[in-house]
Amino acid sequence: MRVERVLEEAVRRGVVPGLAFGVVFADGRRHTLHLGQAQLEPEPVPLEEGFYFDLASLTKPLFTLKEVLRAVEEGLLDLDDPLSLHLPELLWLKDHPLKGVSLRALLAHTSGLPAWEAVYTWGEGERLRARLLQHPWPLGEPVYSDIGYMLLGLLLERVRNRPLDAFPLPPGLSFRPPRERAVATERCPWRGRVLRGEVHDENAFALGGVAGHAGLFGTLEGVLEELFAILQGRWLSRAALEEMLRPHGERLLSWERKRPGWQGGSLASERAFGHTGFTGVGVWVDPERGYAWALLTNAVHPTRHRPPIAPLRRAVGNLLASEAA
């Protein structure tokens, strides 16, 4: 595949230290590739099959969205429920802006919540959970929001009466991967070490290592199985998948739709969708052409100040589309 040459060159030029790439077709055919290093420092570790990547914001669609929709399928939630219906302590807070925000708006990033806040400086554990709900979040123009998914994580814990890291996960996905089989991310000045097998995202770390917006780890094989299930229409019920793929402004529920400037490549079909994560990971699904692909990298290792990865993602997406069309 021409894609292989592009990926080999990216590793050779140091765009990323290492990567795992895979494409899966609706009929079950798949092609995978592992290149480079899982870690450069403090000592080199070659990247092998079965290594876990920090999936960062892929946690949003692959875990949080899926679990919310499962709860809807079971009659525990409705997408148009206000958050306060399931987190009633919001009702005790006078004129709290979160009272009327719907689960649908949180999933689709249309709530108007801020994109991000350094909530890891507010405390940790239960204290931080309480402050997330009590804080008078300003609601402005819709933006992609980590805050919304942190709140959805709290909602899921309440509805299921268990912490997020106690939710069952399919093979190849984990919240607590074995360190020796994990791909390193950044040399974190805040924690004073190279991160390997622990979540890169500071806010997720302060929430116990797992949150609704980040904290999931996955192998290439585990991620491809999720994409394959989506392609085959068995990831969720047909009704839930149809609702997931209904446009909500510039996005679907959680997923990004194809639009100018997106990172899945301009040759993807109009029905294509995908998602990226800050650590250098991304997945894309093209149901019209019957394939999906994942590019998992350690682009922030040992520092986030590396060449941009977006051009590589677009190149891979366009090469795949031109060969599959």
UniProtKB/TrEMBL annotation:
Superkingdom of source: Bacteria
UniProtKB keywords: Hydrolase
Pfam families named in the record: Beta-lactamase (PF00144)
GO molecular function per UniProt: hydrolase activity
Record-linked Gene3D superfamilies: DD-peptidase/beta-lactamase superfamily
Domain Beta-lactamase-related: 3-316
Designated name of the protein: Esterase
Organism, scientific name: Thermus filiformis
